[in-house]
Amino acid sequence: MRRLNRKKTLSLVKELDAFPKVPESYVETSASGGTVYQDTWMKYEYEVDKDFSSKLRINIDITVAMKCQYVGADVLDLAETMVASADGLVYEPTVFDLSPQQKEWQRMLQLIQSRLQEEHSLQDVIFKSAFKSTSTALPPREDDSSQSPNACRIHGHLYVNKVAGNFHITVG
Fold first, then answer.
1. β-strand 151-161 against 89-94: which pairing, if any?
2. Of the four listed, 4, 135, 137, 162, which is most buried by Cβ atoms within 10 Å?
3. Is the pTM of this model over 0.90?
4. Which long-range contacts (CB under 8 A, 24 or more apart) does 13-18 make?
């Protein structure tokens, strides 16, 4: 394969024209020239869910400052239907206090929240960039075997009826 030197490559790119030319008689120049303005926005659309017979999946990730053996979680809806919590929820013993890396993550989130309260125009930019960036979830705890678990992380999902209800975390 023949390689082009830098001057030939540059002239080839300058001569490349992928757009059709407009005849000179159609062009009217002005003193100010042209302006390009780009703006983006978020558009929210809502509609009523007419399928009330199916179940709704609710994801849960809560840490309670109590050992797992003393904690229970359940859902009771207005139809007085108890949702079994054992199927989709995991009770994981953990340490309640954040690790140094997790505290730094929390400090950064608080800083972003305070900036959002001051500069509302940043809201759309941050929301859009959050979807493109890496995970915004709490970083995992660094291994520290000196602390014994003193809390319970309840995480997983529940399927509930599409009616009002209450999620309880109780002793027992």
1. antiparallel
2. 162
3. no
4. none
